[in-house]
Amino acid sequence: MDIPTRTITLPSGRTAALRMGRGRDLINAHRAVAANPEPIAISFALIAELATVEGRKIVYEDLMTMELSDVLVLESEIIEAQSENFPGAADRE
Asked: DSSP secondary structure string, 4-42?
């Protein structure tokens, strides 16, 4: 089964591929950072679950050393892609 993936260019010029997430990805993200009380940890872990950069899988720690502009774009893209599956309350009226 092919999972939809889209490719973006990060502000640093590097290429990232983002795949559509599944419930198991969110569970894996929670498990990966279970002992980490930092609220952003789940977001970083989810990015690591769904993104590759320059064709290689990234891990949570990679995001800690990545340029902030790249991290923010990855976070924004993943949140936006997932929210497309959940129309806002105004759209339901």
From this structure: PEEEEE-TTS-EEEEEPP-HHHHHHHHHHTTT---TTHH
Closest CA to 45 of 78, 69, 73: 78
Residues in a beta bridge with 56 = 53
Enter the tokens of residue 48.
């690591």
Task: Tell me how far CA of residue 18 lies from CA of 31, 37, 68, in angstroms.
Answer: 20, 26, 18
Helix axes 68-83, 41-50, angle to 10 degrees: 80
pLDDT 10s digits, 56-71: 999 999 999 999 999 9
Closest CA to 73 of 3, 6, 4: 6
pTM comes to 0.81
Structure token digits, residue 64:
């800690």
